[in-house]
Amino acid sequence: MNNKPLNVSVEQAKLLGNALRIKIISKLLDEPRTAKQVADLLGESGGNVHYHMKKLYEGDLIELVEEKQFGGVMEKYYKSKSKWFNSFGAEPIDPVLKDDFISNDSTALSIRLNLTRDQQDQIKEEFRLFLEDWVKKTSVNETVGAQEYSIGVKINSTIPKMEEGE
């Protein structure tokens, strides 16, 4: 599995704005699986998972790596192309994280730190591991009292980017 972030288009980023699709990607990181296998792991219906995997495949976020004939059925095994995704420009990867999105429940946390390049790399890796851990903790279908949230971590230098020619 590729640990390097995959650069995605706006259309691909929209596909990632769904908690179930993130859970599906998390189950396709380490080994190829069928939609049925992913559905069983997540405690979701096969039809629902198949639909979302088809969208992820059509969006080029997961890839078909193997097909096996099993009885009269062709089993298709998929694998995620990455576990991290980058979008470009001012738009966040998830539209819910846009500054003008009005949420019924929102928390903003921020702090300024002086970081060396090594410290910046370290804190990014720690946030990635933290978020991956929470994907694992929430990957089993426990919908009673659960609400979907979008969580993003943005690390910006306080120095503005120079325009070309400056």
UniProtKB/TrEMBL annotation:
<keyword id="KW-0238">DNA-binding</keyword>
<dbReference type="InterPro" id="IPR011991">
    <property type="entry name" value="ArsR-like_HTH"/>
</dbReference>
<dbReference type="InterPro" id="IPR036390">
    <property type="entry name" value="WH_DNA-bd_sf"/>
</dbReference>
<dbReference type="GO" id="GO:0003677">
    <property type="term" value="F:DNA binding"/>
</dbReference>
<dbReference type="Pfam" id="PF12840">
    <property type="entry name" value="HTH_20"/>
</dbReference>
<dbReference type="GO" id="GO:0003700">
    <property type="term" value="F:DNA-binding transcription factor activity"/>
</dbReference>
<protein>
    <submittedName>
        <fullName>Transcriptional regulator</fullName>
    </submittedName>
</protein>
<feature type="domain" description="HTH arsR-type">
    <location>
        <begin position="11"/>
        <end position="94"/>
    </location>
</feature>
<dbReference type="InterPro" id="IPR001845">
    <property type="entry name" value="HTH_ArsR_DNA-bd_dom"/>
</dbReference>
<dbReference type="InterPro" id="IPR036388">
    <property type="entry name" value="WH-like_DNA-bd_sf"/>
</dbReference>
